[in-house]
Amino acid sequence: MEVKRKKILQSSLFQQTQNTNLQAKLDFEVRMREGAYKLLLACSKREQVLNASKNLLTCNARIRAYLHELQETKEEEEEEVMGAHGRILENTCVENQLLSSSVTGLRFPLMWRDSDHFNNRGSSRRMALFCMMHLGSEVFDTEMVVVDRSVTDVCFEGVTIFQDAVPSFELRVELWSCVFEEELTMAKTPKKLAKKLRNSFGKSGGKKLCPLLDTSDPDTFLQCHPIPSGARYNLLAYTTLGLCEAEGSFQSHSLIILQNAEWPTWLPLYGNLCCKLVAQPVCMTQHMMAGYLSQKVR
């Protein structure tokens, strides 16, 4: 009974620590999102504006992932009250199956027409692109790259490492695109008007009228803080990778393309993503158990 009580206590402390860490990460990303939006409105150079817009989308995606994990942790705590012993065994099993995975060499081949690529005809517009990768509550993005019709492959350098994967993980790789305009016209947003309205009615009354300004909900934030049209990214394509694709060598994977030629942010993707995905059990790099062995001498 004492051993069981100790395990229940350790599990409760683990859940509390996990919730505290998630809440700290959530608060940090909310502050980063506020800073990214202020920087977005203050920038004048197009590279700075597009990078600020990219960072804003990434912060919003992390906030959404943290909120989802907090909700799942809360549900697990409620289930633990009903059956603590079974939940402890399940958590122990999951911890022993943790993986460390990484993806590198992201490359998206393009399929230009001959008249566009070789004869220097057709559209001369440039596009800004970046990748966003989701695995559980971990969200990472790549550097922004600018491509035109002279580029045959959209490449992203660097290695992205995910620490807390499980054997059934699903890595979602997204490609976002935005028109790289020479001059960006930053339209005024209703945020200042809403703040003036809130201040005119007083702090308490204004918050009741404008509760959406201080929310951490990702969708509500973007509704109340719209991104200027000249810096707005659109999801161009995505794919989902799992443990079966982690073969340790460069492989080609099919893409799901969401845009067509009528979209202003469209690019002629070939329809495949090339990358190297690897996965390794955590027990191969970390100490999982330590103790003494007794040798029986005959």
Automatic annotation (TrEMBL):
It holds the Pfam family Anillin. It comes from the Eukaryota. The keyword Coiled coil applies. Residues 3-79 form the REM-1 domain. Keywords: Coiled coil. Residues 60-87 form a coiled coil. GO terms for biological process: hemopoiesis; positive regulation of cell population proliferation; signal transduction. InterPro entries: AHD (IPR012966), Cytokinesis/Rho-signaling (IPR051364), HR1_rho-bd (IPR011072). This is Rhotekin 2. It comes from Cynoglossus semilaevis (Tongue sole). The lineage of its organism: Eukaryota, Metazoa, Chordata, Craniata, Vertebrata.
